Task: inverse folding
Protein backbone atom coordinates (compact mmCIF):
# COMPACT_ATOMS: atom_id res chain seq x y z
CA UNK A 1 0.00 0.00 0.00
CA UNK A 2 1.47 3.34 -1.09
CA UNK A 3 0.21 6.01 1.29
CA UNK A 4 0.78 9.72 0.84
CA UNK A 5 0.10 11.96 3.82
CA UNK A 6 -0.23 15.73 3.49
CA UNK A 7 1.32 17.65 6.34
CA UNK A 8 1.13 21.36 6.99
CA UNK A 9 3.45 23.30 9.26
CA UNK A 10 1.74 26.21 10.97
CA UNK A 11 2.26 28.82 13.67
CA UNK A 12 1.19 27.40 17.01
CA UNK A 13 -2.01 29.37 17.57
CA UNK A 14 -1.92 28.73 21.31
CA UNK A 15 1.34 30.67 21.54
CA UNK A 16 0.86 33.69 19.31
CA UNK A 17 1.63 36.85 21.29
CA UNK A 18 -1.03 39.54 20.88
CA UNK A 19 -0.44 43.30 21.09
CA UNK A 20 -3.65 45.31 20.90
CA UNK A 21 -5.31 43.83 17.86
CA UNK A 22 -2.06 42.69 16.25
CA UNK A 23 -0.97 39.05 16.15
CA UNK A 24 2.82 38.79 16.42
CA UNK A 25 3.16 35.77 14.18
CA UNK A 26 6.95 36.00 13.81
CA UNK A 27 7.24 35.41 17.55
CA UNK A 28 5.08 32.26 17.57
CA UNK A 29 6.64 28.79 17.46
CA UNK A 30 5.97 26.45 14.54
CA UNK A 31 4.18 23.12 14.88
CA UNK A 32 2.74 20.31 12.81
CA UNK A 33 -0.93 21.20 12.21
CA UNK A 34 -2.77 19.24 14.94
CA UNK A 35 -4.96 16.88 12.99
CA UNK A 36 -2.18 16.11 10.50
CA UNK A 37 -0.58 14.14 13.31
CA UNK A 38 -3.67 11.95 13.32
CA UNK A 39 -3.34 11.57 9.55
CA UNK A 40 0.32 10.53 9.88
CA UNK A 41 -0.56 8.08 12.66
CA UNK A 42 -3.25 6.49 10.49
CA UNK A 43 -0.86 6.28 7.52
CA UNK A 44 1.80 4.58 9.63
CA UNK A 45 -0.70 2.13 11.13
CA UNK A 46 -1.85 1.15 7.64
CA UNK A 47 1.76 0.59 6.58
CA UNK A 48 2.43 -1.48 9.70
CA UNK A 49 -0.55 -3.66 8.87
CA UNK A 50 -0.36 -3.93 5.10
CA UNK A 51 3.24 -3.06 4.24
CA UNK A 52 4.29 -0.42 1.70
CA UNK A 53 5.62 3.07 2.21
CA UNK A 54 4.47 6.37 3.64
CA UNK A 55 5.42 9.55 1.78
CA UNK A 56 4.75 12.88 3.49
CA UNK A 57 4.24 15.98 1.36
CA UNK A 58 4.38 19.47 2.75
CA UNK A 59 3.83 22.63 0.78
CA UNK A 60 5.55 25.54 2.46
CA UNK A 61 2.82 28.18 2.49
CA UNK A 62 3.75 29.75 5.81
CA UNK A 63 6.44 29.07 8.37
CA UNK A 64 8.93 26.25 7.91
CA UNK A 65 11.16 24.58 10.45
CA UNK A 66 13.08 21.45 9.56
CA UNK A 67 13.18 20.09 13.11
CA UNK A 68 9.39 20.31 13.27
CA UNK A 69 9.11 18.41 10.00
CA UNK A 70 11.50 15.82 11.44
CA UNK A 71 9.10 15.31 14.35
CA UNK A 72 6.43 14.37 11.84
CA UNK A 73 8.78 12.10 9.88
CA UNK A 74 9.88 10.38 13.09
CA UNK A 75 6.37 9.02 13.56
CA UNK A 76 7.16 6.50 10.81
CA UNK A 77 7.31 8.36 7.49
CA UNK A 78 9.71 6.86 4.90
CA UNK A 79 10.40 9.97 2.85
CA UNK A 80 9.34 13.58 2.72
CA UNK A 81 8.65 15.86 -0.22
CA UNK A 82 8.94 19.59 0.44
CA UNK A 83 7.42 22.02 -2.03
CA UNK A 84 8.85 25.50 -1.67
CA UNK A 85 8.11 28.88 -3.13
CA UNK A 86 4.40 29.27 -2.49
CA UNK A 87 3.87 31.97 0.11
CA UNK A 88 0.14 32.33 0.41
CA UNK A 89 -2.88 30.81 2.02
CA UNK A 90 -5.00 29.40 -0.72
CA UNK A 91 -6.01 25.79 -0.16
CA UNK A 92 -6.95 25.32 -3.83
CA UNK A 93 -3.52 26.43 -4.97
CA UNK A 94 -1.89 24.20 -2.34
CA UNK A 95 -3.92 21.26 -3.59
CA UNK A 96 -2.88 22.08 -7.15
CA UNK A 97 0.76 22.09 -6.04
CA UNK A 98 0.38 18.64 -4.49
CA UNK A 99 -1.43 17.24 -7.53
CA UNK A 100 1.30 18.60 -9.79
CA UNK A 101 4.09 17.28 -7.56
CA UNK A 102 2.59 13.79 -7.51
CA UNK A 103 2.35 13.82 -11.28
CA UNK A 104 5.72 15.36 -12.14
CA UNK A 105 7.71 13.35 -9.62
CA UNK A 106 5.88 10.14 -10.50
CA UNK A 107 4.89 9.54 -6.88
CA UNK A 108 2.57 6.54 -6.62
CA UNK A 109 -0.42 6.57 -4.29
CA UNK A 110 -3.18 4.18 -3.36
CA UNK A 111 -4.40 6.32 -0.52
CA UNK A 112 -3.87 10.02 0.27
CA UNK A 113 -4.51 11.08 3.85
CA UNK A 114 -4.85 14.55 5.29
CA UNK A 115 -6.41 16.36 8.23
CA UNK A 116 -10.06 17.49 8.30
CA UNK A 117 -8.85 21.07 8.53
CA UNK A 118 -5.58 22.85 9.25
CA UNK A 119 -5.02 24.37 12.68
CA UNK A 120 -4.34 27.85 11.29
CA UNK A 121 -6.88 28.08 8.48
CA UNK A 122 -9.41 25.30 9.01
CA UNK A 123 -10.73 25.65 5.47
CA UNK A 124 -11.37 21.92 5.08
CA UNK A 125 -10.88 22.67 1.40
CA UNK A 126 -7.60 20.98 0.56
CA UNK A 127 -8.77 17.35 0.35
CA UNK A 128 -11.89 18.01 -1.74
CA UNK A 129 -9.94 20.24 -4.12
CA UNK A 130 -7.14 17.69 -4.50
CA UNK A 131 -9.74 15.01 -5.25
CA UNK A 132 -11.11 17.15 -8.08
CA UNK A 133 -7.66 17.84 -9.52
CA UNK A 134 -6.74 14.13 -9.44
CA UNK A 135 -10.26 12.95 -10.40
CA UNK A 136 -10.43 10.42 -7.59
CA UNK A 137 -12.99 9.90 -4.79
CA UNK A 138 -12.82 11.85 -1.54
CA UNK A 139 -14.11 10.83 1.89
CA UNK A 140 -14.10 13.77 4.29
CA UNK A 141 -14.37 13.99 8.11
CA UNK A 142 -13.52 10.34 8.63
CA UNK A 143 -13.38 9.16 12.24
CA UNK A 144 -12.92 5.43 11.47
CA UNK A 145 -11.10 3.89 8.54
CA UNK A 146 -10.51 0.42 7.20
CA UNK A 147 -8.57 -0.54 4.10
CA UNK A 148 -9.79 -3.75 2.55
CA UNK A 149 -8.09 -4.89 -0.63
CA UNK A 150 -8.87 -2.36 -3.28
CA UNK A 151 -11.46 -0.56 -1.26
CA UNK A 152 -11.72 1.78 1.76
CA UNK A 153 -14.58 1.71 4.21
CA UNK A 154 -15.02 4.63 6.53
CA UNK A 155 -17.27 6.26 9.02
CA UNK A 156 -17.84 9.96 8.43
CA UNK A 157 -18.52 12.08 11.52
CA UNK A 158 -21.06 14.76 10.63
CA UNK A 159 -23.05 17.32 12.64
CA UNK A 160 -26.22 15.40 11.90
CA UNK A 161 -24.97 11.89 12.60
CA UNK A 162 -22.73 9.23 11.15
CA UNK A 163 -22.41 7.96 7.64
CA UNK A 164 -20.80 4.62 6.74
CA UNK A 165 -19.30 4.90 3.27
CA UNK A 166 -16.98 3.10 0.92
CA UNK A 167 -15.06 3.84 -2.24
CA UNK A 168 -12.50 2.26 -4.50
CA UNK A 169 -8.82 3.10 -4.27
CA UNK A 170 -7.05 5.33 -5.03
CA UNK A 171 -8.92 7.77 -2.84
CA UNK A 172 -8.36 10.78 -0.59
CA UNK A 173 -9.45 10.65 3.03
CA UNK A 174 -9.54 13.57 5.45
CA UNK A 175 -9.51 12.41 9.07
CA UNK A 176 -10.91 13.93 12.27
CA UNK A 177 -9.00 14.01 15.56
CA UNK A 178 -11.14 11.17 16.94
CA UNK A 179 -9.65 8.58 14.57
CA UNK A 180 -6.62 7.67 16.72
CA UNK A 181 -4.15 8.81 19.36
CA UNK A 182 -0.98 9.98 17.56
CA UNK A 183 2.27 8.45 18.84
CA UNK A 184 4.96 10.71 20.25
CA UNK A 185 8.36 9.92 18.72
CA UNK A 186 11.42 9.68 20.94
CA UNK A 187 14.28 12.18 20.72
CA UNK A 188 16.40 9.48 19.07
CA UNK A 189 13.72 8.86 16.44
CA UNK A 190 13.54 12.60 15.72
CA UNK A 191 17.32 12.73 15.27
CA UNK A 192 17.25 9.75 12.92
CA UNK A 193 14.40 11.31 10.96
CA UNK A 194 16.85 13.99 9.84
CA UNK A 195 18.57 11.35 7.74
CA UNK A 196 15.45 10.16 5.92
CA UNK A 197 15.13 10.93 2.22
CA UNK A 198 13.93 14.48 1.53
CA UNK A 199 12.92 15.56 -1.95
CA UNK A 200 12.85 19.31 -2.62
CA UNK A 201 10.54 20.74 -5.25
CA UNK A 202 10.40 24.38 -6.35
CA UNK A 203 6.97 25.76 -7.11
CA UNK A 204 8.33 27.38 -10.29
CA UNK A 205 8.73 23.85 -11.71
CA UNK A 206 4.97 23.36 -11.35
CA UNK A 207 1.99 24.63 -13.26
CA UNK A 208 -0.01 26.31 -10.51
CA UNK A 209 -3.02 27.77 -12.20
CA UNK A 210 -5.57 28.33 -9.44
CA UNK A 211 -7.97 31.15 -8.63
CA UNK A 212 -6.51 33.98 -6.55
CA UNK A 213 -7.40 35.10 -3.04
CA UNK A 214 -6.13 38.28 -1.44
CA UNK A 215 -5.77 38.43 2.32
CA UNK A 216 -6.00 42.15 3.05
CA UNK A 217 -5.82 42.09 6.82
CA UNK A 218 -5.44 39.79 9.82
CA UNK A 219 -6.19 41.02 13.29
CA UNK A 220 -6.59 39.56 16.73
CA UNK A 221 -10.10 38.44 17.58
CA UNK A 222 -10.06 38.58 21.32
CA UNK A 223 -12.40 40.14 23.78
CA UNK A 224 -11.23 41.81 26.94
CA UNK A 225 -12.55 40.25 30.14
CA UNK A 226 -12.38 41.38 33.77
CA UNK A 227 -10.07 38.47 34.66
CA UNK A 228 -10.95 38.63 38.33
CA UNK A 229 -9.48 35.72 40.29
CA UNK A 230 -11.69 34.43 43.09
CA UNK A 231 -9.15 32.61 45.21
CA UNK A 232 -10.17 33.78 48.67
CA UNK A 233 -11.68 30.45 49.72
CA UNK A 234 -14.84 28.58 48.76
CA UNK A 235 -17.31 30.59 50.87
CA UNK A 236 -16.26 33.99 49.53
CA UNK A 237 -16.22 32.68 45.97
CA UNK A 238 -19.71 31.23 46.38
CA UNK A 239 -21.03 34.51 47.71
CA UNK A 240 -19.58 36.42 44.81
CA UNK A 241 -20.93 33.96 42.25
CA UNK A 242 -24.42 34.14 43.74
CA UNK A 243 -24.20 37.92 43.56
CA UNK A 244 -23.22 37.74 39.86
CA UNK A 245 -26.06 35.30 39.15
CA UNK A 246 -28.49 37.76 40.72
CA UNK A 247 -27.04 40.71 38.86
CA UNK A 248 -27.35 38.88 35.56
CA UNK A 249 -30.96 38.00 36.34
CA UNK A 250 -30.24 34.26 36.30
CA UNK A 251 -31.68 33.89 39.81
CA UNK A 252 -33.85 36.24 41.76
CA UNK B 1 -25.55 40.14 -8.95
CA UNK B 2 -26.97 36.64 -9.41
CA UNK B 3 -26.69 34.26 -6.48
CA UNK B 4 -26.95 30.48 -6.41
CA UNK B 5 -27.51 28.90 -3.00
CA UNK B 6 -26.68 25.26 -2.44
CA UNK B 7 -27.90 23.89 0.85
CA UNK B 8 -29.77 21.17 2.69
CA UNK B 9 -33.30 22.42 3.38
CA UNK B 10 -32.70 22.95 7.11
CA UNK B 11 -29.86 25.43 6.69
CA UNK B 12 -31.31 27.20 3.66
CA UNK B 13 -33.39 29.88 5.46
CA UNK B 14 -30.35 30.93 7.50
CA UNK B 15 -28.08 30.92 4.45
CA UNK B 16 -30.41 33.32 2.66
CA UNK B 17 -29.81 36.02 5.32
CA UNK B 18 -26.19 36.97 4.56
CA UNK B 19 -26.81 36.57 0.83
CA UNK B 20 -29.84 38.91 0.91
CA UNK B 21 -27.70 41.60 2.50
CA UNK B 22 -25.71 41.72 -0.75
CA UNK B 23 -28.90 42.72 -2.60
CA UNK B 24 -28.75 40.12 -5.37
CA UNK B 25 -30.94 40.73 -8.42
CA UNK B 26 -31.81 37.05 -8.81
CA UNK B 27 -31.56 34.17 -6.34
CA UNK B 28 -31.86 30.49 -7.12
CA UNK B 29 -31.53 27.71 -4.54
CA UNK B 30 -30.74 24.04 -4.92
CA UNK B 31 -31.89 22.00 -1.95
CA UNK B 32 -33.12 18.54 -0.95
CA UNK B 33 -36.62 19.24 0.43
CA UNK B 34 -39.21 21.98 0.36
CA UNK B 35 -38.12 25.03 2.34
CA UNK B 36 -39.88 28.31 3.25
CA UNK B 37 -37.51 30.75 1.57
CA UNK B 38 -38.25 33.69 -0.67
CA UNK B 39 -36.02 32.92 -3.63
CA UNK B 40 -36.77 33.41 -7.30
CA UNK B 41 -36.44 29.73 -7.99
CA UNK B 42 -36.24 26.69 -5.72
CA UNK B 43 -34.87 23.47 -7.19
CA UNK B 44 -35.59 20.43 -5.07
CA UNK B 45 -33.40 17.38 -5.61
CA UNK B 46 -35.27 14.13 -5.14
CA UNK B 47 -33.79 10.81 -4.12
CA UNK B 48 -30.68 9.85 -2.24
CA UNK B 49 -28.33 12.80 -2.72
CA UNK B 50 -24.67 12.17 -1.87
CA UNK B 51 -21.92 14.80 -1.94
CA UNK B 52 -20.91 13.60 -5.42
CA UNK B 53 -24.45 14.45 -6.56
CA UNK B 54 -24.50 17.90 -5.00
CA UNK B 55 -21.22 18.69 -6.72
CA UNK B 56 -22.34 17.43 -10.13
CA UNK B 57 -25.70 19.20 -10.09
CA UNK B 58 -24.39 22.47 -8.67
CA UNK B 59 -21.38 22.69 -11.01
CA UNK B 60 -23.68 22.10 -13.99
CA UNK B 61 -26.05 24.80 -12.83
CA UNK B 62 -23.49 27.38 -11.68
CA UNK B 63 -22.77 28.95 -15.04
CA UNK B 64 -23.95 32.56 -15.22
CA UNK B 65 -24.02 33.05 -11.44
CA UNK B 66 -21.77 35.57 -9.68
CA UNK B 67 -21.94 34.14 -6.20
CA UNK B 68 -22.29 30.52 -5.17
CA UNK B 69 -23.14 30.29 -1.49
CA UNK B 70 -23.27 27.27 0.81
CA UNK B 71 -23.47 26.69 4.56
CA UNK B 72 -20.13 25.84 6.22
CA UNK B 73 -21.40 22.48 7.48
CA UNK B 74 -19.04 19.53 7.13
CA UNK B 75 -20.73 18.11 4.05
CA UNK B 76 -21.16 21.47 2.36
CA UNK B 77 -17.55 22.53 3.01
CA UNK B 78 -16.58 19.52 0.92
CA UNK B 79 -19.11 20.32 -1.77
CA UNK B 80 -18.10 24.01 -1.89
CA UNK B 81 -14.39 23.33 -2.33
CA UNK B 82 -15.06 20.76 -5.04
CA UNK B 83 -17.34 23.09 -7.02
CA UNK B 84 -14.72 25.84 -6.80
CA UNK B 85 -11.92 23.51 -7.89
CA UNK B 86 -13.99 22.05 -10.70
CA UNK B 87 -15.08 25.42 -12.05
CA UNK B 88 -11.80 27.22 -11.37
CA UNK B 89 -13.41 29.80 -9.05
CA UNK B 90 -11.95 31.33 -5.89
CA UNK B 91 -13.29 29.87 -2.64
CA UNK B 92 -13.49 31.33 0.86
CA UNK B 93 -14.67 29.04 3.64
CA UNK B 94 -16.41 29.72 6.94
CA UNK B 95 -17.33 33.30 6.13
CA UNK B 96 -18.69 35.23 9.13
CA UNK B 97 -19.38 38.55 7.38
CA UNK B 98 -19.48 39.69 3.81
CA UNK B 99 -19.76 42.89 1.83
CA UNK B 100 -19.46 43.76 -1.80
CA UNK B 101 -18.13 46.66 -3.87
CA UNK B 102 -16.33 45.62 -7.01
CA UNK B 103 -14.98 42.61 -5.22
CA UNK B 104 -16.32 40.44 -2.44
CA UNK B 105 -14.84 41.19 0.98
CA UNK B 106 -15.27 38.31 3.37
CA UNK B 107 -14.22 37.87 7.01
CA UNK B 108 -13.34 34.52 8.49
CA UNK B 109 -11.70 33.19 11.63
CA UNK B 110 -8.14 31.93 11.57
CA UNK B 111 -5.59 30.56 14.03
CA UNK B 112 -8.21 28.57 15.89
CA UNK B 113 -10.29 31.68 16.42
CA UNK B 114 -7.45 33.85 17.72
CA UNK B 115 -7.49 35.89 14.53
CA UNK B 116 -10.00 37.33 12.09
CA UNK B 117 -8.90 37.73 8.48
CA UNK B 118 -10.34 39.82 5.73
CA UNK B 119 -10.12 38.30 2.26
CA UNK B 120 -11.03 39.85 -1.05
CA UNK B 121 -11.95 37.83 -4.10
CA UNK B 122 -13.22 38.63 -7.56
CA UNK B 123 -16.65 37.54 -8.68
CA UNK B 124 -17.67 34.92 -9.63
CA UNK B 125 -16.69 33.09 -6.48
CA UNK B 126 -17.78 30.40 -4.04
CA UNK B 127 -18.32 31.17 -0.35
CA UNK B 128 -19.31 28.90 2.52
CA UNK B 129 -20.94 30.73 5.42
CA UNK B 130 -20.59 30.16 9.12
CA UNK B 131 -24.29 30.51 9.94
CA UNK B 132 -24.13 30.63 13.72
CA UNK B 133 -24.67 34.39 13.88
CA UNK B 134 -27.50 34.58 11.32
CA UNK B 135 -31.24 34.42 11.79
CA UNK B 136 -33.34 32.44 9.31
CA UNK B 137 -35.01 34.55 6.66
CA UNK B 138 -38.29 32.99 5.65
CA UNK B 139 -40.88 33.57 2.94
CA UNK B 140 -42.01 31.61 -0.07
CA UNK B 141 -40.33 30.79 -3.37
CA UNK B 142 -41.61 32.46 -6.54
CA UNK B 143 -41.20 29.23 -8.48
CA UNK B 144 -40.41 25.64 -7.67
CA UNK B 145 -39.17 22.66 -9.59
CA UNK B 146 -38.27 19.09 -8.67
CA UNK B 147 -35.29 17.32 -10.18
CA UNK B 148 -34.29 13.66 -10.04
CA UNK B 149 -30.61 13.89 -10.86
CA UNK B 150 -28.58 10.95 -12.08
CA UNK B 151 -25.09 11.20 -10.67
CA UNK B 152 -21.77 9.55 -10.87
CA UNK B 153 -21.17 8.10 -7.38
CA UNK B 154 -17.55 7.80 -6.46
CA UNK B 155 -18.36 7.37 -2.81
CA UNK B 156 -21.09 4.87 -1.87
CA UNK B 157 -23.15 5.44 1.26
CA UNK B 158 -23.77 2.14 3.06
CA UNK B 159 -25.65 3.43 6.08
CA UNK B 160 -26.76 6.67 7.70
CA UNK B 161 -27.35 7.02 11.40
CA UNK B 162 -28.94 10.38 11.90
CA UNK B 163 -29.72 12.06 15.15
CA UNK B 164 -32.24 14.74 15.72
CA UNK B 165 -30.85 17.90 17.23
CA UNK B 166 -32.15 18.51 20.76
CA UNK B 167 -31.36 22.18 21.11
CA UNK B 168 -30.15 25.28 19.39
CA UNK B 169 -27.66 26.64 21.92
CA UNK B 170 -27.16 29.85 20.00
CA UNK B 171 -30.38 31.11 21.61
CA UNK B 172 -29.65 30.13 25.22
CA UNK B 173 -29.53 32.93 27.84
CA UNK B 174 -27.62 30.95 30.47
CA UNK B 175 -25.19 28.13 29.73
CA UNK B 176 -23.43 25.68 32.02
CA UNK B 177 -20.58 24.14 30.07
CA UNK B 178 -18.38 21.20 31.03
CA UNK B 179 -14.96 20.00 29.93
CA UNK B 180 -12.67 17.14 30.73
CA UNK B 181 -12.48 18.28 34.34
CA UNK B 182 -15.59 16.08 34.60
CA UNK B 183 -14.35 12.59 35.41
CA UNK B 184 -17.26 10.27 34.62
CA UNK B 185 -20.38 10.38 32.50
CA UNK B 186 -22.52 9.75 35.62
CA UNK B 187 -21.29 13.04 37.03
CA UNK B 188 -23.34 14.83 34.40
CA UNK B 189 -26.20 14.33 36.88
CA UNK B 190 -24.93 17.06 39.21
CA UNK B 191 -24.33 19.30 36.21
CA UNK B 192 -27.93 18.70 35.10
CA UNK B 193 -29.15 19.53 38.56
CA UNK B 194 -27.19 22.79 38.58
CA UNK B 195 -28.42 23.67 35.09
CA UNK B 196 -32.01 23.09 36.05
CA UNK B 197 -31.70 25.30 39.15
CA UNK B 198 -30.26 28.06 36.95
CA UNK B 199 -32.67 27.51 34.07
CA UNK B 200 -29.59 26.94 31.94
CA UNK B 201 -28.75 24.81 28.93
CA UNK B 202 -25.84 22.37 29.12
CA UNK B 203 -22.92 22.70 26.73
CA UNK B 204 -19.47 21.12 26.51
CA UNK B 205 -16.04 21.07 24.91
CA UNK B 206 -15.32 18.97 21.84
CA UNK B 207 -13.63 16.05 23.67
CA UNK B 208 -16.79 15.57 25.77
CA UNK B 209 -19.03 15.17 22.72
CA UNK B 210 -16.69 13.93 20.01
CA UNK B 211 -14.27 11.62 21.87
CA UNK B 212 -16.25 10.59 24.91
CA UNK B 213 -19.72 10.95 23.37
CA UNK B 214 -21.20 11.93 26.74
CA UNK B 215 -23.26 14.71 25.17
CA UNK B 216 -24.58 15.19 21.62
CA UNK B 217 -22.52 17.09 19.03
CA UNK B 218 -24.83 20.10 18.86
CA UNK B 219 -23.89 20.92 22.46
CA UNK B 220 -20.22 21.39 21.70
CA UNK B 221 -19.18 25.02 21.72
CA UNK B 222 -16.33 26.39 19.65
CA UNK B 223 -14.79 26.84 16.28
CA UNK B 224 -16.06 23.50 14.99
CA UNK B 225 -19.21 23.58 17.10
CA UNK B 226 -21.78 26.20 18.04
CA UNK B 227 -21.10 29.87 18.63
CA UNK B 228 -23.10 30.99 21.66
CA UNK B 229 -23.94 34.41 23.06
CA UNK B 230 -25.58 33.96 26.47
CA UNK B 231 -25.79 36.53 29.25
CA UNK B 232 -23.84 34.09 31.41
CA UNK B 233 -21.42 31.30 30.46
CA UNK B 234 -20.33 29.09 33.35
CA UNK B 235 -17.30 27.01 32.32
CA UNK B 236 -16.60 24.02 34.58
CA UNK B 237 -13.36 22.05 34.25
CA UNK B 238 -12.49 23.60 30.90
CA UNK B 239 -8.86 24.47 30.11
CA UNK B 240 -9.63 27.36 27.76
CA UNK B 241 -8.03 26.30 24.49
CA UNK B 242 -8.65 28.93 21.84
CA UNK B 243 -10.80 26.66 19.63
CA UNK B 244 -13.28 26.42 22.48
CA UNK B 245 -12.97 30.01 23.67
CA UNK B 246 -13.94 31.51 20.33
CA UNK B 247 -17.33 29.81 20.74
CA UNK B 248 -18.32 31.94 23.74
CA UNK B 249 -16.50 35.13 22.73
CA UNK B 250 -19.77 37.04 22.58
CA UNK B 251 -21.03 35.94 25.99
CA UNK B 252 -21.85 38.90 28.22
CA UNK B 253 -20.22 37.46 31.33
CA UNK B 254 -17.97 34.43 31.72
CA UNK B 255 -17.46 32.62 35.01
CA UNK B 256 -15.08 29.69 35.15
CA UNK B 257 -14.13 27.06 37.68
CA UNK B 258 -10.82 25.24 37.39
CA UNK B 259 -8.44 23.56 39.85
CA UNK B 260 -5.43 24.87 37.99
CA UNK B 261 -4.70 28.55 38.76
CA UNK B 262 -2.58 28.72 35.58
CA UNK B 263 -5.31 27.37 33.27
CA UNK B 264 -5.67 29.67 30.23
CA UNK B 265 -9.43 29.91 30.87
CA UNK B 266 -8.54 32.41 33.62
CA UNK B 267 -7.39 34.91 30.99
CA UNK B 268 -10.69 34.79 29.13
CA UNK B 269 -13.05 34.84 32.11
CA UNK B 270 -14.60 37.72 33.97
CA UNK B 271 -14.58 35.70 37.19
CA UNK B 272 -12.24 32.80 37.68
CA UNK B 273 -12.88 30.50 40.64
CA UNK B 274 -9.88 28.36 41.49
CA UNK B 275 -11.56 25.28 42.88
CA UNK B 276 -12.35 21.64 42.34
CA UNK B 277 -15.66 21.50 40.52
CA UNK B 278 -16.60 18.44 42.60
CA UNK B 279 -16.49 20.64 45.67
CA UNK B 280 -17.77 23.83 44.12
CA UNK B 281 -20.80 22.55 42.22
CA UNK B 282 -22.45 20.68 45.16
CA UNK B 283 -21.91 23.77 47.35
CA UNK B 284 -23.46 26.01 44.73
CA UNK B 285 -26.42 23.65 44.34
CA UNK B 286 -26.89 23.65 48.09
CA UNK B 287 -26.83 27.45 48.21
CA UNK B 288 -29.33 27.70 45.36
CA UNK B 289 -31.66 25.19 47.01
CA UNK B 290 -31.47 27.01 50.31
CA UNK B 291 -32.96 30.13 48.80
C1 LIG C 1 -8.98 21.99 14.39
C2 LIG C 1 -9.45 21.90 15.81
C3 LIG C 1 -10.73 22.32 16.12
C4 LIG C 1 -11.21 22.24 17.43
N1 LIG C 1 -12.46 22.70 17.71
C5 LIG C 1 -12.90 22.69 18.98
C6 LIG C 1 -14.19 23.22 19.32
O1 LIG C 1 -14.95 23.69 18.46
N2 LIG C 1 -14.58 23.17 20.60
C7 LIG C 1 -13.79 22.67 21.60
O2 LIG C 1 -14.21 22.67 22.76
N3 LIG C 1 -12.58 22.16 21.31
C8 LIG C 1 -12.12 22.16 20.03
N4 LIG C 1 -10.88 21.64 19.76
C9 LIG C 1 -10.13 21.01 20.87
C10 LIG C 1 -9.42 22.04 21.73
O3 LIG C 1 -8.17 22.36 21.15
C11 LIG C 1 -9.14 21.46 23.13
O4 LIG C 1 -8.47 20.23 23.02
C12 LIG C 1 -10.40 21.25 23.95
O5 LIG C 1 -11.23 22.38 23.93
C13 LIG C 1 -10.03 20.92 25.39
O6 LIG C 1 -11.17 20.49 26.09
P1 LIG C 1 -11.25 20.54 27.67
O7 LIG C 1 -11.02 21.93 28.14
O8 LIG C 1 -12.53 19.90 28.05
O9 LIG C 1 -10.10 19.53 28.15
P2 LIG C 1 -8.67 19.77 28.77
O10 LIG C 1 -7.87 20.66 27.93
O11 LIG C 1 -8.15 18.43 29.10
O12 LIG C 1 -8.96 20.58 30.13
C14 LIG C 1 -9.52 20.06 31.29
C15 LIG C 1 -9.41 21.13 32.37
O13 LIG C 1 -10.11 20.69 33.53
C16 LIG C 1 -9.39 21.09 34.68
N5 LIG C 1 -9.80 20.20 35.75
C17 LIG C 1 -9.45 18.89 35.94
N6 LIG C 1 -10.06 18.40 37.00
C18 LIG C 1 -10.83 19.38 37.52
C19 LIG C 1 -11.71 19.47 38.63
N7 LIG C 1 -11.93 18.43 39.44
N8 LIG C 1 -12.32 20.64 38.87
C20 LIG C 1 -12.09 21.72 38.07
N9 LIG C 1 -11.28 21.69 37.00
C21 LIG C 1 -10.66 20.53 36.73
C22 LIG C 1 -7.95 20.97 34.29
O14 LIG C 1 -7.14 21.82 35.08
C23 LIG C 1 -7.97 21.42 32.82
O15 LIG C 1 -7.74 22.82 32.72
C24 LIG C 1 -10.39 21.71 18.46
C25 LIG C 1 -9.10 21.29 18.15
C26 LIG C 1 -8.63 21.39 16.85
C27 LIG C 1 -7.23 20.95 16.56
N1 LIG D 1 0.54 23.58 2.84
C1 LIG D 1 0.13 22.31 3.00
N2 LIG D 1 0.99 21.28 2.82
C2 LIG D 1 0.58 20.00 2.99
N3 LIG D 1 -0.67 19.67 3.35
C3 LIG D 1 -1.57 20.65 3.54
C4 LIG D 1 -1.22 22.02 3.37
N4 LIG D 1 -2.31 22.77 3.61
C5 LIG D 1 -3.29 21.91 3.94
N5 LIG D 1 -2.86 20.63 3.90
C6 LIG D 1 -3.61 19.41 4.25
O1 LIG D 1 -5.00 19.68 4.13
C7 LIG D 1 -5.65 19.60 5.39
C8 LIG D 1 -6.76 20.61 5.48
O2 LIG D 1 -6.27 21.91 5.34
P1 LIG D 1 -7.20 23.18 5.08
O3 LIG D 1 -7.94 22.92 3.82
O4 LIG D 1 -6.26 24.33 5.02
O5 LIG D 1 -8.12 23.26 6.25
C9 LIG D 1 -4.54 19.75 6.40
O6 LIG D 1 -4.89 19.12 7.62
C10 LIG D 1 -3.37 19.06 5.70
O7 LIG D 1 -3.45 17.65 5.84
Result:
Amino acid sequence: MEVVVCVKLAYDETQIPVEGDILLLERAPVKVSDIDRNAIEEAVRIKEKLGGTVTAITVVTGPYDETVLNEAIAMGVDRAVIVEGLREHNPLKTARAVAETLRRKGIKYDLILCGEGSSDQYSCAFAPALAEYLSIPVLTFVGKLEVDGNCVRAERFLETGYERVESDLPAIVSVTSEINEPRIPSVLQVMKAGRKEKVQVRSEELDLTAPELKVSEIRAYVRERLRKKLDGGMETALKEILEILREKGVIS
Amino acid sequence: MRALLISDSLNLPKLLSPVSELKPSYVEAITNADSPVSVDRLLILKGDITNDCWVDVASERAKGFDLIALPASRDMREVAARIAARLGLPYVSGVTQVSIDDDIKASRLCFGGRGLELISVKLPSVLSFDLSAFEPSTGSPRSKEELGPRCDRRMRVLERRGKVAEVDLSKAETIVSVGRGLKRKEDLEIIRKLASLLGAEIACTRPISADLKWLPEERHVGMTGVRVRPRLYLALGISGQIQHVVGFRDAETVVSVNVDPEAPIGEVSDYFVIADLYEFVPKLIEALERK
